[in-house]
Write the structure tokens for this entry.
Amino acid sequence: MTSEMDTDAKKHHLGICPYGSGALSYNNYLKIKEIKELQVCQSNPAHHDEPLFIIIHQTYELWFKLILHEIDETMRQLAAGNAPRATWFMRRVSTIFREVLVNQIHILETMMPVDFLGFRSKLNPASGFQSSQFREIEFAAGMKEARLLQFFANEPEALAQMQKRLDEPTLADAFWKLMIDRGFDVAHQIEEDGSEACQKAHSQRVKELRKVYQEPEKYYDIYELAETLVDLDENIALWRMHHVTVVERIIGFKQGTGGSEGVGYLRSTLTKRCFPDLWHVRTMIELP
Ligand code: HEM
């Protein structure tokens, strides 16, 4: 019996288009026509560099969407007690950040500062500061800042998504829950109020984590998972570093379109961490 593949190959060979009008094609599967219609310039006539600016932001947002999808699966795997599978999905997140997100920001350096000024004023008051998916990633990882919701008051869908993330357990919560399930004496959640009790709970976590980091092979699945969380933190920090450097190169110390002081504000975010205890433990490790 001749397979469909064989028939298609013969048609190709004879120069006949093998696909019927209803067949799935690359373009309609991926909705390429629709995607290409989504770059709407604010400048008029459209500035040559504005499509670059739009496409780079849109691609970031598509990757952010996938990262949230992978974090959700990681959470499901952790809820089922499957640490190795959770680690697998977090590795994908690290790879996306490391191979794409940290570096692609530099494509914007091919835009001259004077060319950016050609359309920058049209973007006011929009800003990356209002990327709700970026905030969702921060919230889902463990860096919840409820005050950020106020900036999304006019976007009910984004607001609802962010509120959902704010109410849900984070990757950090799931990690501490796993530690508890494995018999470690750590607090599941800590009230981050700077109180003595809060500091004590963090010290206790670091004390327990130290056991894992002193003897990684004994607790290998926890160790591996913890390192993928540190990867995420490191990659977000690297992205911030690359972003602020590119921002300084293009707009110097001008104010941001979102209303912040710009580079000064962005520099103040460089030391933010989603998993501070996983960083702190390194100071405590000693030669066995
Ligand atoms: C010419 C290129 C860019 C410039 C000049 C720029 C500038 C800025 C500035 C000044 C801020 C601070 C908030 C404000 O006042 O607006 C900011 C924040 C931000 N930008 Fe950009 N940006 C650029 C490209 C990008 C790209 C490609 C992304 C990709 C998603 C991005 C994502 C963000 C995010 C997520 C924040 C919030 C950071 C935080 O609050 O921790 N930016 N940007």
Summary: The chain has a mean pLDDT of 95.
